[in-house]
Each structure stands twice: as structure tokens, then as C-alpha cells.
Amino acid sequence: MNPATVVHGRLRAGVRREPLLPVLVILLLALAASFQEFATVANFRNIAVQASPLIIAAVGMTYVIMTAGIDLSVGSMLFLAAAIESSQAIVGLPTALVFAAVCAAGALMGLLNGVAVAFTQVPALIVTLATMQVFRGAGGHITGQQNINLPANLLGIGTGSLLGVPTPVLLAVAVALAGGFVFSRTTFGRYVQAVGSSPDAAANAGLPVRSVLVGAYALAGLLAAVASLTQTARLGAVQPSIGQGYELTVITAVVLGGTTLFGGRGSIGGTVLGALVLTTVQTGLVFSGASPYIFDIVRGSVLLAAVLAAGARWRNLAHAVRLTGRRRPSRDGPYNSATSA
Amino acid sequence: MEPSAAISAATTAQPGRLARLRDRTRHVGWLADLAMLPALIVLILVLSTMTDGLLTSSNLINVLSQSAVVAIAAIGATFVILTGGIDLSTGSVIGASGVASAWIITSSGNLAAGIAVGLFTGTMIGLVVGAVVARLNVVPFAVTLAALYVVSGGTTLLSHGKTIAPVPMGFIRFSIDGPGGIPYAVWLVVLLYVIAQVVLTRTAWGRRVVHVGASIEVARISGVNVVRTGTSVYAVAGFFSAIAGLVLTSGLAGAGASMGNPLLLNIVGAVVLGGTRLSGGRGSLLRTGIGVLFLGFLSNGMSLLGLQSYDQLIVTGAFIFLAASADGLFRWRRRRAVRG
Amino acid sequence: MNRFGVARYVAAVAVASLTLAGCGSSASSDGSDAATSAKKRTIGVSFDLLNAIRQAEKASIQKAAEAAGYSVVFDVADQDAQKQASQIQDLIQTKKVDAVIVIAQDGQQIASSASLAKARKVPFLAIDRAVADQQNVTFQITGDPVADGKAVADEFLAAAKTKPLKVLELVGGLTDQNAIGRRDGFNAALAGQPNITIVSQVPTDWNPTQALDGTSNALQKDPTINAIYIPSDFLLPSVQSALTAAKKLAPIGDPKHIFMVTIDGDQNGCKAMQAKTLDADIATPVEEFGKQAIAAVTTAVGGKPVDPKTVQAKGLTLNQANFATTSSQVWGCAS
Q: Taking CB atoms and an 8 Å limit, are A338 and B317 in contact across chains?
């Protein structure tokens, strides 16, 4: 077999698996060609740092969405975690203890979500809609809706660097690798996909459905807290509007990356790419000097374009799997094939 | 019912199964729709003991008129959720239709033209969204999220972020005056709910909507044009969002691009609180109405209590969860009883 | 629903309502105690949102109200114009407050609340954000956003005399009339000025993270940026962080120093002025808002017309030259 064909075949398989990769590459190349300051190490470092909290939070959200659930409270969790970090009781403790406390708080928040989703019949949308309000209210209570500056020792996790690599990036890489590893190589990861695919079948097969759900949401809460630590450190202060609307951004990154909202199928790598694409678009808009009015329009169009483009690619696959069960490919909805009916 | 099971059921040509599925998805009876009514009553009772004046006629009318905009938009949201979809762009369509109509009204003085343009704007946006969802087969969450950004950004761009006002006095008085002291806007809500419920339960289109939500494969096999139904339901949602936008413009005496955005959570929350299933196939306008009233009384009660805004958030969240779990408790118990 | 289920549910609701009662009683010490004591006048206050400067405005109202013997009921609308209209309606019609003080989410859309107040003969006072239709407004005291923007421009013009400025302009909320005013005032005053170029306009939507990322991107795009206009102190920490990350946060006198001017005058702005990393801050006269609003309430409930009916309190320019003498008048420096 001709090596070119092998490479070509591998490339096509890779692209089919991660349709967002060529999109990101083309985007980067186009921007680098248009603006000379774009293709610098400093700029790529900027993009990586800006994308890092989003990547961390989105990995957690990927797990939740893979269980066919959703977490609307991630923005509020971000805020509450920051509020706890800045609270009188915690902020003066040694740095490591502060981080541990905030992470524990995040895991607890996620645990609350998970227990509510797993043990009651309330849909995840409602549970997390409710906790979205509760967490933001609790955070407002703690901060008194004021700005609170963080002391210098807590800023390193956002502004520092190790061996030239900024700390947020290191955290994001670690989370993404760990998240991908757990997803594809551990029992928990497989269970998450099974539960998302068909909770009834999973239950019948003896899987601990409830524990898996609780675990997924707790993980999302923990990662939201980690994202909060690094993001708030970058900002230098806790402000009342932190995280507002963030859930939509995180979910956009996950959906862009190919994880289906129906559950059971997903990709951590895709989520990382989705976050990178979103951040690159944001940066590109500033570089292009575009009018402030069009930022939102571009954001929505990018999402739509990516989803449509991926949809077209998957349509053949859709035909094939349609009759064998609920497996619906990434971005496709249930209206399989516009050509029938 | 699992699509695979439904398909095998249909393809073994057992009309009995199909008929049973149809029966199961038909509107189950209005008594079941009142499942959330006890929660609403408990809420009102609890709030009335803690506040002064909650149960006065003037305050009750206030609650109704304060809930009117959400109530109207929730009609469209109910239809969309009945098909198993969701519409995140509702808030932005409310803003877009309101701004479009206010612009026509203030620049041309023609009220009828303004209303028509507003309704047209909302319906067209909904049609486009519906076409992408149903024809191009993209997940509703993603499409309507994209629409949210594009419509909101577009409206802000076209209006330069400015609010369009003042609108004519007659238009404003629609939300204030009315027979029996109840504003015309509230009567409109009641009328729309009755019409919508009739459409849902007694028209072929309404039945198709429910079938598509219950099982899209079975609906297609039994001859329903799922693509057309799916498209039309988002257009209908756009239409009702437009009406809501007009009522909001009337109530606020002006229209701004971002005026509808904060309402999205209340709209979707009201529908789901009322007990309409997010997976589609089960639900009704009566349920949504109760959900709207629940959120309306909660908000009104907390405002009267003078709770700190962050405490209000906590209480709102807690009550939303409690109310939803009450319905869930009921279903869980019933399922347990059935399984034996 | 069997009896056990009902009992569990009722218990849960009872617990929730007890919590509500607990929260409600701690908050209502502001309000409903008025009913028991000698007929104290109650003022309903409706804010659009709650953040650092709103907390200062709230405090100034409460201080003045307490001094005048009024009690205050306080509502926040979370940036929802419709919610604000509902809350004001509740204040006027059900809680029957004696006056309302409002920071409008939208100066046009607050008109219906103003006319409701007029119809119920409740004095309607506006602060901070101007109400478009003044016919039903009893008294209004606001800043002057366009003048504030121009004051910022004046500082830029003075600095541009020594060297040409390449400006990064951060843009606040695109539908916020105050933000629009500040932006327009700034841009109009600088139009056609040869020494000053606005090289980048970054939208922030009043979001600190967007301000942080946007500033980093703008500095990356054009490293020769040597001036930044921040339309509110609220975004200052984000900009400082972005500058620190780019190793460009330097005090005046350092050749790397970037000329910066903000508006509002909060604690962060004051600290930055003291550290000489901020060149000027146009302070909002928050104390005046509360003082004059309460004074107007007293006049209005006494049945007399308020004169002057509209006050536009210009921002107080605090710059490095006048810092020693002026800082005491800035609310952010006082705390």
C-alpha cells in the first residue's frame, strides 16, 4: 500500500473523528496571514492562557453532558468558589489549604447537583437551573456583592509560570489529559458513556447508575472550582458579575467539540478544540478591529457554521446508525435525513 | 418508548401497538395537568402568611399582569418542548420583534404596520431556526443558542444599542386599562392560552406535534411529515415570542434589544415546572400556565418580603427544585406502584 | 399521591418557608418594623443591579434616610427592565411606600413606572441614570455621562501635548445609556485630534473577564499602545492584571507607563491613583446622590414642588496634580 494513501487515510480518519481540528488550523493560518502580530509566541501563549479556564470547566461539562445531563450552574459555581476563596474564613490560610478548601467546595457543589439529579426524578435542566440561583445567591451573600481583592499569594495559580509555561496552561493540559485518560481507559469513563446512552440498559446490566451520575456532576463541580481558582487569580479580584452567562460559553465549547447533548457519545479532545476555536475567534475579532457590535453575531455564526459543517459530514453515518438504536451522531438532531418524509 | 423498540413494533405491522402508542401520547386528561396545582396553592398560602397584601385584589391583578409576557412566550416554548426540542433564542426574539415594531411605529406612526412587522419578524426568525433544526437536522440546543447570539447581536447592532421610545399612549394603555380592572394584556393571555390548548388537543397539527415528540421515528412511519411539523413548531414559537415582545414593549413603553434576554430562564423554567416533559410527547398549556403563576407569585412574594436580592436567588432556586421534585415524587411513586 | 409522599412534601415546603422566614425577618428589619413603630415614612428603592458602586449609592441613600428618619425597602432587578417595573409596582401598590427612588435599568422603559407613581401620587425620584420622559419625575440627580467622557478626553488631550497617544478604548455595555454617553462624549471630544489615535475599541459588556482578555489581545495586536480609556473603575483590576501579565504595569515616570483614565472613583481607582499607576479618575458624586434624593423626598412628601427638579452632578476630576487636595471628596478614597 502506497504510504501516501496510508497517510491520507489516517488523516481522513483523524479529521472525521475530530472535525474541528482543520477548522482550528485554518482559522489560525488565516489570522496569522492577515495580522503579523498574530503569529507570535506571545500571542499563542495569550490564547492558550485565555482558553485554559474554559478548557478546565468544559472538560467537567463534557462528562455531565455525556450522561445525557446538563449543568447550567457552572457559572454560579465559578462565582461561589471564588467567593469562598475570598471569604474571611479561608483567604488567610496557607495557599495550599486555600486551594484544597475551594476544590472541596466545588466538589460539594457538584455533589449536590449529582445527588439531586440521581436520586430525584427532576430533570438535570431544572436541578441545575435551581442550583444556578442558589449558588449565585450564596456567593452574593458571602461577598456582600462587593469587589474583593485577592492577596498576592493566591495569584500565582493564574499569573505564574513553570519552566516558561504559564500555570493556567499547565493546569488545563493536565486536566485535559487526565480527563481524556479517565474517559477512554477507566471503568468510570465507560460507565459514563453507558449511562448516557441508555440509563435503563445500564441499570439492567448492573451498573451503578446513580453513583456514576453523582460522580460526573461532582467532577464538573470540582473542575469548575479549579477553573475558578485560575481565572480569579488572573483577574486579581472577586467581582459580583464573575461567571454570569458562563454556562452558555462552556456548553458552546462542548457542543462545538462534538459531544452530543443526547449523551453517550463525546470527546474530550473535541471539547479542548472547541474551547480553542472559541478563544481564537474572540482574539481574532480584537485583532481585526471589528466593531464591538458584531462580536456576538460572529460568535453565533461560528457555532452555527461548525455545527452545520459537522452535520453534513456525519449525515451518511446517520443513515447507517438510524435503524439500530438511539445512537445519534454528534451535532445531528433527531430529524434524521431531510430527504425522507 | 425507545426508538428501536418503536421501530420494530411498527415494522412488525401491529396496528394495535401503534394505536396504543397514540393513546398513550394523546393528551391524558386535564386532571393530570393540574399536578402542580397543590404546589402553587401551598406557595400562595405560605407567602400570604408572611407578607401583607399578597392576596389583595390589586396585588393579584399585578401578579397576573407581571406574568403576562412570560406567559405568552411560554406558549410557544411549550409547543417546542413538546416536540422534544428547546428554544434558547426566545428572549432575543422578544427583543428583536419589540424593537422592529417600535421602530416602525415611532417612525411611521402606523400602529397596525408596526404590529404586523413585529409579528412577521418573530415568525420569520422562528421559521429559519425551525428549518435548520428540522431540515438540516441540527440539535435544537446548538441552533437556538447560535440564534440567540446572532439575533441579539443583530438587534443591538441595528438599533445602536438604543431603546426605541416613546410608543403611542394607546399602545401603552393596553397593559394598564381593561375590563374589571384587569389589563387587556392579561385578557389576551387568557385568550391565547385557550386557543393554544384547543389547537394542541383538537387540531391535527397539535396531535402531530405530540406524536413527533413522543417518537419521531414512529411518527414518520405513520405518515407524519416530521420535517414540516418540526419547522412549524419553531415558527409558532417565534410568533408567540413576537406577541410577547409587543406586550413587553407596551408594558415598558419602549423597546430595547436586550429587554427579553433575562426572561429566557423564567420561560423555560415555567414550562418545565408545570410538568411538561423535556423529552417531549407529554404536556399541555394548562401545565405551563400553572408553572407561570408559580414563578410569578414567587417573584412577587419575595419582592413584597423585601428579601435581599441574593437571598431571593437562593429562595427561588430552592422553590423551583422543591416544586419540580414534588411532581417527580408523584411520578416516582406511581411508577413504583405500577412495577409492583 | 399517597399520604407518605404528601407528608414528606409538606415537610419540605415547611422547612423551606421557615428558611424564607428567617431570611425575611433579617431583611425586613429595614422595612416592616415601620408598621409597628410610630408611622415612619417608608421609601422604596429600586436598583438595576448590585455591585461596588451601587453598594456605595445604597449606603449613601441609607445614611441620608436614617438621618431624616425614614425607613428603606430595597429591591434589585438583576438587570431585567420588566422585573424592575414589577418590583416598583409592588412597592407602590401593595407595600404602599411613600416615595420611590430608582436607578433605572433603562431610562426609556422606566416611563411606565414613573406614570404609575404619578397616578398614585407617589413621588418618583431618579438617580444615576437619566429618565428620558421627565413629566412624571419628581426629582432627578444623575451624573453627566457625556461630560464625564469629555473630562476623560480633556486629560488625554493634556497628556497628548507631550507625546502622541495611541489609545485602547474599552467599551462598556452596548445597551447601557450611561456607557453609550461616556463613549460618545469621549469620541466626540477627540474627533479630529491629530495627536491622538484610537487604535482599538474592545467590547467588554461590563464583564471583567472580557476586559482582561480583550486588553491582552489589544496589547498583543499593537504593542505601541500607550494609553487606555476605561469607562468604569469596575474594570480597572482586569486591565491592571492584563498589564501586569504583559509586563506593562508601571507607575508614572517609568518609560513603560501607560496613560490611563477611568470613571467612577471607587476604592480600586483611588488605590491606583495613590500607586501612581492611574493618571486620572473622574469620580461620581455618590454622596450627593443619596443626600439630595432624600432631601427631595422630604420636600415632596411635605407637598412642595422640588426645585431644581433636575440636577446633573458633574464628575469630579481627580488627577495626579490635584490628588492631595481633592482625594478627600472622592467616595472611593474615603473608605
A: no
Give the B window 255-294 contacts with C, CB below 8 Å. 256-259, 262-263
CA distances from C30 to C78, C298, C333 (A): 20, 19, 28
Which chain B residues in 169-188 lie under 8 Å from chain C, judged by CB atoms? Answer: 172, 175-176
Q: CB of A216 within 8 A of CB of A69?
A: yes
The mean pLDDT of chain A is 86
What is chain B's mean pLDDT, rounded? Answer: 87
User: What is the distance between the alpha carbons of residues C273 and C63, in angstroms, rounded to a whole number?
Assistant: 27
Confidence tier at B337 by pLDDT (50, 70, 90) = very low
C47-66 mean pLDDT: 92
More confident residue, B328 or C294: C294
Q: Is the pLDDT of residue C277 over 50?
A: yes
What share of chain A has pLDDT > 70, as a percent? 89
pLDDT at residue C14 is higher than 50: yes
Tell me the β-bridge partners of C227. Answer: C167, C259
Q: Which chains lie within 8 Å of chain B at 3 or more CB pairs, if any?
A: A, C
Nearest-neighbour CA in chain A from C202: distance (Å): 6
Assess whether pLDDT exceeds 50 at residue B66. yes
Q: Which of A2-6, A40-44, A277-281, C105-109 has the lowest mean pLDDT?
A: A2-6
> Which residues 291-330 of A are in CB contact (within 8 Å) with B?
291, 293-297, 299-301, 303-304, 307-308, 311, 315, 318, 323-326
On whether any CB of chain C is under 8 Å from the CB of B307, the answer is yes
Dihedral, CA atoms, B103, B104, B107, B110, nearest 10 degrees? -140
Which chain B residues have a beta carbon less than 8 Å from that of A340?
220
A116 in contact with B, Cβ within 8 Å: yes
Chain C positions touching B95 (Cβ under 8 A) are: none
3 state SS of C332: helix
The model's pLDDT over C299-314, given as tens digits with 9 standing for 90+, comes to 999 889 988 999 999 8
Residues 248-267 of A with CB under 8 A from B: 248, 251-252, 255, 260-262
- B96, amino acid identity: A
Sheet holding C124-128, edge to edge: C71-76, C42-47, C99-102, C124-128, C139-142, C310-312
Subunits touching A (CB < 8 Å, at least 3 pairs)? B, C
Chain length of chain B: 340
Nearest CB among A131, A262, A326 relative to B2 is that of A326
Grid cell in block for residue B141: 440546543
Instruction: Using CB atoms within 10 Å of the CB of residue B228, give its burial: 0 to 12 exposed, 13 to 18 middle, 19+ buried.
Output: middle
**Helices (H) then strands (E): counts for chain C:** 13, 12
Q: Which residue, chain included where needed, has cell 437562593?
A: B314
Cα–Cα distances (Å) from C294 to A1, C43, C144, C305, in that order, read: 87, 9, 20, 14
Of C31, C82, C96, the CB nearest to B263: C82
Q: Which residue among C2, C12, C89 places its CB closest to the CB of B66?
A: C89
Judge: B333–C19 Cβ closer than 8 Å, yes or no: no
Q: Do C245 and A42 touch (CB under 8 A)?
A: no
> Cβ neighbours of residue C67 under 8 Å, at least 6 residues apart?
C294
In this prediction, residues B257-266 reach a mean pLDDT of 92
**CA–CA separation, B295 and B319 (whole Å):** 9
> Does residue C4 register a pLDDT over 80?
no
Subunits with 3+ Cβ pairs within 8 Å of C are A, B
> B337: which 3 cell numbers?
406502584
Mean pLDDT computed over B188-194? 97
Residue A39's φ and ψ, nearest 5 degrees, are -85, 50
Contact in structure between B199 and B81 (CB atoms under 8 Å): no
